[in-house]
Amino acid sequence: MAQPKAVNAILVGVNSSDASRLAIEQAAREAELRNAPLIAVRAYSGERTPTAQPASAAQSASAERTAEDERLETESLLRDAIREVLGDRADAVEVRAVLGLAGRKIVETAHKVNAQLIVLATHGSRSMLLGTVSQYVLRKAPCPVLIVPAPPVLP
């Protein structure tokens, strides 16, 4: 049975930047104002990477991180970021760790959940420069996109 589609969700793309925290705040405000569900998305690559130097060749296979390990870690980081920004309100946020390129996965998720708004952060801390993810989403999004600027760097 197919999972029911969320109707008119607010979608926020999350990474590890300070600007991303501001995007989470703004997305939560928009979701509250619009009485819409909030879905947070963070992409991961799924590539196997060594976690440590194994002592022997026999240990090398078990020392690699799997795509599932990376998915779980990404989901945990996403939940932590949401909880840090929203506190108790974090429980109402649906989190999705998605395998693939961030821009594509954000757009695909927006289609799947019938997003009414996508919220993203700018790239970098000193300008309104858009990174490749934001540029891709702006070109391909099925709904409006809100770009939240990074916090100003004070001297």
How would you describe the overall organization of this protein?
- The protein is α/β, with parallel strands linked by helices.
- It has helices at 18-34, 57-63, 67-86, 102-112, 132-140; strands at residues 10-13, 38-44, 49-50, 64-65, 94-99, 117-121, 145-148.
- The chain has a five-stranded parallel β-sheet, with helices on both faces.
- The N and C termini lie far apart (56 Å).
- Helical percentage: 40-55%
Q: What is the radius of gyration computed over CA atoms, rounded to a whole number of angstroms? A: 17 Å
Note the total helix count.
Answer: 5
Oligomer: single chain
End-to-end Cα distance:
56 Å
Shape: globular
- Strand order in the largest sheet: 5-2-1-6-7
Order of helices and strands: EHEEHEHEHEHE
Q: Low-confidence spans: pLDDT under 50, at least 5 residues?
A: none
What's the total number of strands? 7
Q: Could you tell me the strand content as a percent range?
A: 15-25%
Largest sheet: 5 strands, parallel
Overall pLDDT score: 85
Category by helix and strand content? alpha/beta
